[in-house]
Amino acid sequence: MHTSTFDILRCPYCGGRLDLVTSSFHETEGDDIHTGILGCQCCVFPVVDAIPVMHLQPNATAARELVEQRKPVAARRAMFGLDDVPEIAERVDALMASPDATYRQIVEAFGEHLEGGYFLYRFADPTFIVGHALVRAVAGTVLRGGGRAVDICGGSGHLTRSLMDLSSSPPVLADLYFAKVWLARRFTAPACEPVCCDGNSPMPFARGAFRFAMCSDAFMYIWTKRQFVLDMLRLIDDRSERATPGAAMISHTHNQCTWTPSHGQPLTPNGYRNLFENEEPRVFGESGLFSDVVRGGPLDLSRVDSETTLEAEQALAIIASRHFGMFVPHPLDSPPAQAIGEFRVNPLYVAEFSDEDAVRYRLQFPSEDYEQEYGACREYLLPEVIIGHADLQALAHGRVPPGVTELVRRRIVVDIPLGYGV
Ligand SMILES: [Zn+2]
Predict the structure, then answer these.
(1) 6 CA from centroid of ligand 1 (Å)
(2) 354 pLDDT above the threshold of 80
(3) Dist. CA 20 → ligand 1 center (Å)
(4) Strand 247-254 vs strand 212-216: parallel, antiparallel, or unpaired?
(5) Whole-angstrom distance, CA of residue 38 vs CA of residue 18
(6) Following DSSP, what letter does each residue of 119-150 receive, concatenated?
(7) Integer Cα distance of 47 and 60 in angstroms
(8) Model pTM?
(9) If you measure from the C-alpha of residue 343 to the centroid of ligand 1, how many angstroms do you get, rounded to a whole number?
(10) 72-111 per-position pLDDT tens digit
(11) Ligand 1 centre distance from Cα of residue 250 (Å)
């Protein structure tokens, strides 16, 4: 962690500022703290592999003791939850030390110790494309004049990646799962500022530290929902006179009125609204936003979904903002002409036939479960596509030839992080 993070970091329990405890074991390089102990008035927290661990769950306590005993590698294993499985821990350690290891290899080495899910397909699934469009529109609006973003419960940083060029300082990625934020910093959202913390505790950040705070695909699993939302509003509460209004956004949260796989403990649309107290958040059904994205935009945040519409939705998005430019139609970003990471044919496609001119690909789902949960991607992924070798070569060099722009827009060709391993 960079020492400038002390400006926004606060103890989740006493709210106090933190400092490096220089009398304890620490490893620093210039302004970066790689290993150490942070102290406030009430607690001590470890920094493991340059990630501050701002909670007191048993793995964090074990890691803190190991740092104090000058055992940084063992502390990392404790944070990964691998201290009881030495063969897996050794394999993961070796991969992490290797510059050629891929995201996929590391996730696979963790096996059941890390919930990897359908990460290979993440950048093209319907939940992601709506989340991405919302981030670009909402964060894009409030961060236009500067300001920082935080992705809370952001997992391995797939949507943090969508924030990278919008946040004036590196976006903060906060999640309870240390392995996920570790992977995000290395692969998915390099240069983000990872913080390991518990979404069911007060957030370890100062009031007004951010102009945009979000939580996607996780809020239904939070038990302390009221505390979480009020804390999100605290994080974007900039009291300075000329401050641009910020935004708090909860996207892809399930709906108590309908059943969904991996349901969590969702609220009704009105239940979510009530969490925001004096703010007047807008609640959107995800399916309307999804149609906007599939159609090519604009993402219409001026819409007012009726209560009947909202009650029938599987997933909801909630946005609280006093920015005058928020609840209007937002054009979608044009598909990138240059890769940020690298272009790949979506791994949901299998190459079926190749001749000297082109390759024919067919859409094939990895499992029935995937198809059931994410089958809506059929609305933008064509059943079959043919891509010329010359176009494939240009894509391999990070360029989008004119005839391929539509394939990028449809996510048949995806821009994935370097070293992702697809
Ligand atoms: Zn404290």
Answers:
(1) 14
(2) yes
(3) 13
(4) parallel
(5) 6
(6) GGGGGGSHHHHHHHHHHHHHHHHHTTT---EE
(7) 10
(8) 0.96
(9) 45
(10) 999 999 999 999 999 999 999 999 999 999 999 999 999 9
(11) 28
